[in-house]
Please model this.
Amino acid sequence: MEKRMVKFYAKDSNKVAIHAVPGHFSTGHSHINYYINITSLKSRVSEARELAKLLAAKFTSNITIDTIVCMDGMEVVGAFLAEELEKRDVMTITNLHETVYVVPPEFNASNQMIFRDNSIPAIQGKHVLLLLATTTTGVTIRQSLECIRYYGGTVVGVVSAFSTVKEVEGFTVECAFNEEDVPGYAAYPVEECPFCKKGHRVEAMVNGFGYSKL
Model:
């Protein structure tokens, strides 16, 4: 897989790039013909900072954000994004600590998204921005929106490093990369996957955290 990896730069920055591997891969909700690898964007400080700047530019100063909920191990990017948003003075006057919270959720044994009691104050009554690594179907976004609302948060925006989904439940999914940045990218419902119909094996299970070869 690694030998087939190609690099694509963001339209708005030559300092932000993703790596893509062509093949036959399975996500939790679909089959895709490219694995989008954003590991370096999540784990290298310089790249995470640049991605955060690019994503922060998607939002105007009239949005209020108290908390960033980070999915898929996006906490490093989330911390830099919080810094960028603080520069824009986006917090509500009820945010007594005058800083943006950055929190990840937890998933229980039933794969339900939850927040522990000690994390709930960062959600309840707060204006929440949802941050994801990759989005191909919108299922994770819907699950996240439901969870954040359950704990009393108000979702004010959704942002993803890579997304093929443009809108979910009225929210525009802002992103640094979309399918147009990876020529030929396609996602298929499992029952309609052309690779499966031709008998091609799935090479790896993939999600926002990475891949596991089969």
Observations:
- The chain has one domain: 2-213.
- Residues 7 and 19 are 5 Å apart (CA to CA).
